[in-house]
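User: I've been trying to design a sequence by hand for this structure and keep getting stuck. Would you show me what you'd pick, starting by listing the structure so we're on the same page?

Assistant: Good idea, let's start from the same input. This is the structure you sent:
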């Protein structure tokens, strides 16, 4: 069953990881966007191997690049992969139904191995990558601007709180 308290706790933990990193908002946002890019574009297994070196090359948060790839984790992949495959299939002119895609992805999601992925066939693999590219075009800039805004807002809130309540000096 869906647990709201668990989800809220996880979202607050994720928020804390984003805003507590000691770097510029652009650096943090760049890392998260890189992670989201690879999380959407590349199937499981190689996402972190690609995101960390890219974050290093593009001067982005390595922590954010790793955590950003977790978009496609064990709890979300059963929704994301079939949806991006369905969208990709429509974009390449395929006629596979969503139900057929869900059925084809059962083993992929259960095993999470490349052998299971390759067993779904060339058309669905192509659709997965095309749908992933479409998802990447949407989520990468949204992640960058969203994370940057979160970090800036959090820092402004902290500055205002500090200005309103300056630390008291200790008399010696």
């Amino acid at each position: 069953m869906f647990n709201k308290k668990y989800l809220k706790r996880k979202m607050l933990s994720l928020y804390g990881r984003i805003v507590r990193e000691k770097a510029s908002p652009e650096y943090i946002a760049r890392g998260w966007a890189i992670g989201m890019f690879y999380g959407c574009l590349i199937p499981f297994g190689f996402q972190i191997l690609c995101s960390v070196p890219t974050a290093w090359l593009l001067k982005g948060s390595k922590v954010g690049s790793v955590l950003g790839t977790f978009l496609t984790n064990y709890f979300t992949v059963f929704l994301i992969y079939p949806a991006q495959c369905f969208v990709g299939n429509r974009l390449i002119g395929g006629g596979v139904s969503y139900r057929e895609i869900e059925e084809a992805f059962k083993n992929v999601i259960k095993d999470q191995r490349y052998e299971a992925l390759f067993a779904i066939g060339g058309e669905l693999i192509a659709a997965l990558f095309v749908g992933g590219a479409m998802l990447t075009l949407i989520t990468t800039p949204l992640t960058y601007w969203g994370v940057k805004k979160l970090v800036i807002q959090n820092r402004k809130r902290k500055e205002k709180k500090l200005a309103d309540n300056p630390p008291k000096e200790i008399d010696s």
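That's my pick for every position. To get oriented when you compare it with your attempt: Helices lie at 4-20, 25-41, 47-57, 62-68, 77-91, 98-111, 114-118, 122-164. Residues 122-164 form the longest helix (43 residues).
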